[in-house]
Amino acid sequence: MAIGSMWKRCCLAQDRDLICHIKTGFALLLTLPLLLFVITCFYNFSFKPVKHPQTSFNLVNQTQSYNVATEGKKFVWNLLTDHQIIQTVHHHVAHPSNYHFILDEPDKCKQNPFLVLMVPVAPHQVDARNAIRSTWGNESSVQGKAVLTLFLVGLTGGPEAQQQLEEESRQHRDLVQSNFVDSYLNLTIKTLVIMDWLATRCPQAQYSMKVDSDMYLNLENLMNLLLAPNTPRENYITGFLMWDQNVIRNKKSKYYVSEELYPEPKYPTYVLGVGYVFSSDLPKKIIEASKDMKPFNIEDAYVGTCLKRLGIKPSRAPDPSQFQTYMKDSKRHDLSKVITTIARSPKQIIEFWQNVKKTENNR
Ligand SMILES: *[C@@H]1O[C@H](CO)[C@@H](O)[C@H](O)[C@H]1NC(C)=O
Ligand SMILES: *[C@@H]1O[C@H](CO)[C@@H](O)[C@H](O)[C@H]1NC(C)=O
Ligand SMILES: *[C@@H]1O[C@H](CO)[C@@H](O)[C@H](O)[C@H]1NC(C)=O
């Protein structure tokens, strides 16, 4: 532009004389380095290697996305377009599209449950499942509303354990199994697979709950909350709210999350993973949001970051004390008021349950 207009001004208006050519030559000499400088800047900016965070997950497909940041492949990474970058993030290890169900109960939702309880549990925790099956998991109707309880497990240790699990599944028809390695660090995968099951197998339910296998759950009280006229039917999630939580940077902690995985110092408000209840529009939305969110191993905080991206704030329960964690003194009187509390063993789930039933029968 600058050179062109100078050439025009100088060489068309006046005739081509020597001075004019000297002037243009001088201008070219000045402009070319400038141009080169600008181009260099542009290239440096747009093709700067995007440093991708290392994840603490073992990646399903090492050839995709995350590893591209390693030295040898920087060039390939540099040439990826934004679109491709988003595509590869879509396939991160926690995304349910990486997994499939080995055991499934796709017809369970034909009963049109009002509430679906999804219990993540390790394959070997038969005692926990049986305690739940004989207590709150055995309630198929609460205040006239259908309730469904299912357990979600990952891969078993071997063929023998798998056989036992399949036997248990035939007996109870309440197991859903997906093909990821079942481990503590993979709880985010488990949660997203739960969300996937709800979104694809049970979108007609009104509410769902992710509830841990060591929880006492009072379904009467939960149903009172869900049937209350003020309880939203969409974009709703409640439980034990976690505000203003610092990300744990102590490498010795089991809650450790690296800055590469989650750079901000605090988590957005989230609902403690022991038990959160949500409207059934959320599973699909959470999975959608998770596509572009780097996974990290704290499942509840991760759900919180997906919710934040969706612009959905966890709701404070009308009586937050109903969502307990550990109760100092779990007397009958208090147990009959709570919605959730942590039990210290499968046996204690049954004790809590029987205590509350006795109180109800004495009324
Ligand atoms: C990883 O993905 C590439 C391309 O999508 C595919 O060719 C390759 O077989 C995959 N590898 C594994 C281990 O799944
Ligand atoms: C579930 O409840 C029914 C009665 O409603 C009872 O007959 C059955 O034994 C219970 N199941 C378990 C596993 O406790
Ligand atoms: C998490 O699950 C994936 C998929 O099954 C597996 O490759 C990985 O090893 C697991 N990670 C841990 C820490 O168990």
Automatic annotation (TrEMBL):
It comes from the Eukaryota. Pfam families: Galactosyl_T. Keywords: Glycosyltransferase, Golgi apparatus, Membrane, Signal-anchor, Transferase, Transmembrane, Transmembrane helix. Its EC number is 2.4.1.-. It is a single-pass type II membrane protein. It is found in: Golgi apparatus membrane. The chain crosses the membrane at residues 26-45. Signal peptide: none annotated. It is an enzyme of class 2 (transferase). InterPro entries: Glyco_trans_31 (IPR002659). Its main location: Golgi. This is Hexosyltransferase. It comes from Cirrhinus molitorella (mud carp).
